[in-house]
Amino acid sequence: MDISLSLPSDDDADEFLAAVAASRALHRPWIEPPDTPDRFADYLERATGGDRASFLVRHAESGALVGYVNINNIVRGAFQSGYLGYAAFGAYAGRGLMTQGLGAVLDLAFGDLGLHRVEANIQPANRRSLGLVQRLGFEKEGTSPRYLMVDGDWRDHERWALRSDTWRRPF
User: Which has fewest Cβ within 10 Å: 45, 91, 93, 107?
Assistant: First the structure.
């Protein structure tokens, strides 16, 4: 595998913020990742909550930051589900590394974390993100109008989900 996963920490702040700044054109208008020291500190605080699992995706050889993946709002009990948030960083976009990284996180989600289902909500015009979840076997469940506030606007999102019983690593 060309990637490794790590847990985010204070030591990652400078590299993470530099990667976000260098990736603004890739991220807009799709997401608003933490882009200041205060927002990164808030991200780390949320990352340690019991209802979230956060991972940095790194290039295996260089150790450079490729992207990040969060499983948010994990609900236990009969649901065993969470919502994905993720982003690649521009320097490594388009090389298949986020496919590997998200695949590794899905292995953990359906293995160690014991989740039954993960959901990704994606703006319909975000072709790269749609391609990523399709490569990993997600199924489209529907559309949520004006689902999430992004870049100052309520935006429609497509709902894509993957279950533990349908997960098959494609690589």
Answer: 45
State how far the Cα of 42 lies from the Cα of 37, in Å rounded to an integer: 9
Q: What is the DSSP letter of 92?
A: G
- Over residues 84-141, the pLDDT tens digits come to 999 999 888 888 999 999 999 999 999 999 999 999 999 999 999 999 999 999 999 9
Distance in angstroms (rounded) separating the CA atoms of residues 140 and 123:
12
Backbone φ, ψ for residue 132 (5° rounding) = -60, -50
Provide the 3-class DSSP secondary structure of residue 89: coil
The answer to whether the predicted template modeling score (pTM) of the entire model surpasses 0.90 is yes
Structure confidence at residue 49 (pLDDT)? 80
Provide the edge-to-edge strand list for the sheet that holds 117-122. Answer: 3-6, 53-59, 65-75, 81-88, 117-122, 153-163, 139-150
**Of residues 2, 5, 11, the one with CA closest to residue 107:** 5
Choose among 66, 63, 54: nearest CA to 100.
66
Helix, strand, coil percent content, the chain, rounded in steps of 5: 30, 35, 35
Q: Which amino acid is at 85?
A: G
**122 exposed, middle or buried (CB, 10 Å; 0-12, 13-18, 19+)?**
buried
